[in-house]
Specification:
Elements lengths: L23 H7 L4 E5 L10 H7 L3 H4 L10 H5 L2 H12 L1 E9 L5 E12 L5 E10 L1 H42 L6 H31 L8 E4 H18 L3 E4 L7 E4 L1 H17 L6 E9 L2 E8 L33 H11 L3 E5 L7 E8 L3 H4 L24 E5 L3 H13 L3 E5 L2 H11 L3 E5 L7 H12 L4 E5 L7
Parallel strand pairs: 6-8, 12-13, 12-14, 14-15
Antiparallel strand pairs: 1-4, 2-3, 3-4, 5-7, 8-9, 9-11, 10-11
Helix pairs in contact: 6-7, 6-12, 7-10, 8-9, 9-10, 13-14
């Protein structure tokens, strides 16, 4: 075995014997975060520091004299990559790389590697210094970020592809409702289609929401929120289902002083899920109670029903994703079992928690959301909740009377169905399916309102909007349409 190449310590005079000077070899040996070892010109290991022992798992006597390629995966060794690294270092003086390496126990780690060629005073190659650092954690974070990016892109595509066919169906149903039907069967057909489209739309929204929440893609816009407003909004949203099932909904008065720091839309969403859940799992003519109370520093929102109840054995897993309230599925059950999982995650996003209580099957159930209350001084003047009807300035301008409307969408079914609906309301419409076509049509037609798709195949909707604004001025109302809708 050849002896290690002799390397002088930079900045240390070889003739100095002062006890204050730290020997270079001791300095290298003391480094724990980097594997630092030396190779002879053929790539055999001739030195081994403590960092190398810690990182790779080998003692010095296990590796000295062996070829450094032993630390590379088999497929990398077969490709001749280790030899290529030495060749490049000898040619350029230095070689840097990242890749998988193998520890003694067979596990892989992601390594950052620097190989530096060593030459004597005559320029002859006498060996190499190899420095290796473990970047596995950084690699995992990078992979996680890439996974989140891909998931975000997937959700955007999924949202677009699921919403695109639903939009024209929903629009045609709205048009259908404006028509007088003499045939009772047609009226029943319309009602069934409308109900099922509404259900499918909710399922799509639930799937997208839970996927976003699970991947940390949902932003909660925090601010003071009056729980009385949340209750009023949720009750209004579920009233049609309550009436359809002939339930009696008893809503206790809510103290207007109860405020939490949260997102009005998301808190309302959680309560709507609980109320819908109670209505779904209670036989027609049932009784549902909604109450909000103070319990020390917390607010407790409670939804109780006298419905089917929950099997006690199912209670520990009631909020598991895709679980069922009863712990088993019956033919009358609908939905994917993700509503309660969503409620749990939405409560946790507000530093709260949700609980389920039931004495058993047939005994009804009670769900409670517990949220930290805001101190009275912070909730005295809450900001207006972030919801569509909270800001008059953000309201779409009403168009009274007959208006010239242009519909721009590459989804022809949706464009035609929306145009038909608008015409049934007394407006004049024109359609375009591409951005450039829309601009040319606008020059002739001079629309007063434009429903504009964002994802057009030639010019995107933003560019079309800029050109239309220049062409038509501020009086023209531009309404964005997109199946790519995301929080961002």
């Amino acid at each position: 075995m050849s002896s290690p190449p002799k390397v002088e310590s930079p900045g240390v005079d070889a003739g100095t014997t002062s006890s204050r000077d730290v020997p270079f070899q001791l300095l290298v040996e003391s480094i724990q975060d980097y594997a630092i070892f030396m190779l002879d010109p053929a790539g055999r290991i001739v030195s081994w520091n403590s960092g190398a022992r810690r990182l790779k798992g080998y003692r010095a006597d296990e590796v000295l004299g062996s070829h450094f390629s032993r630390f590379y995966p088999e497929e990398t060794r077969r490709s001749g990559w280790p030899e290529y690294e030495l060749m490049q270092a000898a040619s350029d003086g230095r070689f840097e790389d990242e890749g998988w390496r193998i520890r003694k126990d067979g596990s892989r780690f992601w390594a950052s590697v620097i190989i530096t060629a060593l030459r004597d005073e005559n320029g002859e190659l006498i060996g190499y210094v190899k420095v290796t650092r473990d970047l596995t954690q950084s690699k995992r974070l990078e992979a996680l970020e890439e996974s989140e990016r891909r998931m975000s892109e997937f959700l955007a595509v999924l949202s677009h592809e699921l919403r695109n066919p639903l939009a024209p169906i929903r629009t045609m149903m709205d048009l259908f409702k404006t028509k007088e039907l003499q045939d009772p069967q047609l009226d029943m057909i319309r009602s069934v289609i409308d109900s099922q489209v509404s259900h499918l739309t909710r399922v799509v929204a639930d799937l997208l929401d839970i996927a976003r929440i699970q991947h940390g893609l949902v932003a909660v816009r925090r601010g003071p929120v009056a729980l009385a407003d949340v209750v009023a909004h949720a009750v209004q949203a579920v009233r049609p289902l309550i009436e359809q099932k002939s339930h009696d909904l008893d809503v206790a008065d809510v103290d207007p002083a109860l405020h939490v720091e949260g997102d009005f839309v998301r808190l309302s969403q959680a309560l709507i899920y609980l109320l819908n859940n109670a209505a779904q799992y209670t036989d027609p003519g049932g009784h549902i109670e909604l109450a909000v109370s103070r319990d020390g520093p917390d607010a407790v929102i409670s939804v109780s029903d006298n419905g089917r109840g929950i099997d006690p054995a199912a209670l520990p897993d009631i909020f598991a994703m895709f679980g069922r309230r009863s712990g088993r599925r019956s033919d009358s059950d609908t939905g994917l079992g993700i509503g309660l999982g969503l409620v749990k995650r939405l409560a946790e996003l507000h530093d709260g928690r949700v609980e389920a209580h039931s004495e058993g099957i047939g005994c009804g159930s009670r769900f409670t959301i517990r949220l930290p209350l805001l101190p009275a001084t912070e909730s005295a003047e809450p900001r207006e909740p972030d919801r569509p009807d909270s800001d008059a300035a953000a309201q779409p301008r009403q168009f009274g009377g007959r208006r010239r409307i242009m519909v721009v969408d590459d989804n022809r079914d949706f464009a035609e169905s929306l145009a038909m609906l608008l015409e049934s309301l007394g407006h004049e419409t024109k359609m375009a399916h591409r951005g450039k076509q829309a601009i040319e049509l606008a020059e002739r037609y001079r629309p007063e309102t434009v429903f504009l798709d964002i994802g057009l195949p030639d010019l995107d909707g933003y560019e079309v909007a800029r050109r239309l604004r220049t062409l038509l001025g501020e009086k023209c109302v531009l309404a964005a349409l997109t199946g790519w809708g995301q929080e961002s």
